[in-house]
Amino acid sequence: MSKIPVCSPLLSGNELAYVTEAVSTGWISSSGKYVAEFEKAFAAYCGVRHGIAVCNGTVALHLALTALGIGPGDEVIIPDFTMIASAFAVCYTGAKPVFVDADEATWNMNANLIEDGITSRTKAIMPVHIFGNPCDMAALRRIAEKHALAVVEDAAEAHGAEFGGVKTGKLGDLAAFSFFANKNITTGEGGMVVTDDGELARTCRYRKNLCFPPDAPRTYLHGDIGFNYRMSNLHAALGLAQTERADRYGALRIRHGLLYRELLSSVPGIVLQEDQPEGKNVFWMNGLCVQPEEYGRRRDELAARLAGNGVETRLFFNGMHRQPALKKYGCDCAGRYPVSDFLADNGLYLPSGSGLEETDIRHICKLILEYRR
Ligand SMILES: Cc1ncc(COP(=O)(O)O)c(C=O)c1O
Question: SS3 of 283, please?
Answer without folding.
Answer: coil
